């Protein structure tokens, strides 16, 4: 496996109901130098092969966490993956931890529109306030935090908005792939 691949960790518990996340995963699969690990497809029983996952992570320059935001966090299998794979001494806690210097890019969708993420809105605070656990995970592991790519109101988004979002994801993914290969 190429030591500079990009690893997309895709977690959606109901991909058949999420055309945006499915299309994002498909765009990643179609990008050279990108490995997509579909966690719900690979581990429907939640029995994660930590050593296999660590091998995928070890050989990646960038980890893309692709999932919907559900109840202000990640889907349960993504959280289980982090609990099982990202252990102390390997993922963080030592100067030579495996994740140190790798990129952390959150690519997420929300059910609510952007207007819901403001004072007085449904969620009562800016969306950035809900990113603290993700940012802190990157910081603890010595990873480079990359500004998230988020599509708010994904379920109600029109085709043109979805197409534009997928195109931006693909553009950025290609740029990161080229950077990882020194092009």
From TrEMBL:
UniProt KW Endoplasmic reticulum keyword: no
Residue ranges occupied by any Flavodoxin-like fold domain in the UniProt entry: 4-173
UniProt superkingdom: Bacteria
UniProt entry keywords in alphabetical sequence: Oxidoreductase
Entry's transmembrane regions: none
PANTHER family: GLUTATHIONE-REGULATED POTASSIUM-EFFLUX SYSTEM ANCILLARY PROTEIN KEFF (PTHR47307:SF2), GLUTATHIONE-REGULATED POTASSIUM-EFFLUX SYSTEM ANCILLARY PROTEIN KEFG (PTHR47307)
Protein name: NAD(P)H-dependent oxidoreductase
């Amino acid at each position: 496996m190429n030591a500079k691949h990009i690893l997309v960790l895709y977690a959606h518990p109901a991909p058949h109901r999420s055309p945006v996340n499915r299309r994002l995963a498909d765009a990643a699969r179609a990008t050279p130098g990108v490995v997509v690990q579909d966690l719900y497809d690979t581990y429907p029983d939640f029995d994660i092969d930590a050593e296999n996952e660590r091998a995928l992570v070890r050989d990646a320059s960038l980890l893309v966490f692709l999932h919907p935001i559900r109840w202000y966090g990640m889907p349960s299998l993504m959280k289980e993956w982090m609990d099982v794979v990202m252990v102390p001494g390997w993922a963080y806690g030592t100067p030579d931890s495996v994740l140190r210097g790798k990129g952390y890019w959150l690519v997420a969708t929300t059910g609510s529109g952007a207007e819901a993420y403001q004072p007085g809105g449904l969620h009562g605070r800016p969306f950035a306030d809900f990113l603290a656990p993700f940012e802190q995970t990157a910081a603890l592991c010595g990873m480079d935090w990359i500004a998230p790519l988020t599509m708010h109101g994904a379920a109600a988004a029109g085709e043109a908005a979805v197409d534009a979002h997928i195109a931006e994801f693909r553009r950025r993914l290609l740029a990161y792939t080229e950077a990882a290969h020194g092009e």
